[in-house]
Design a protein that fits this description.
Blueprint lengths: L8 E5 L12 H16 L3 E5 L3 H6 L13
């Protein structure tokens, strides 16, 4: 719920492109497809655990929280 409204969301983790294939647009094309599918399915929120924040920011993602490990 956000502001009392129920949202359908996706949780995305462990997305990777092999190192030798990086820089060829594969990740960007994958995300373009996922964004299209999300719109078609009415998904209004995507939660992401990014390994490469600058790449995801280039796609429009922004940090909303910081995950901290506690001992």
């Amino acid at each position: 719920y956000i502001s009392g409204k129920l949202f359908t969301c996706w949780m995305v983790a462990a997305v990777a492109v092999k190192q030798e294939k990086r820089g060829k647009g594969i990740g960007t094309h994958l995300w373009e497809y996922l964004f299209h599918e999300a719109r078609e399915l009415g998904i209004s929120l995507i939660n992401l655990y990014p390994a490469n924040l600058p790449f995801y920011r280039s796609l429009g993602f922004e940090s909303s929280a910081i995950r901290t490990r506690y001992k």
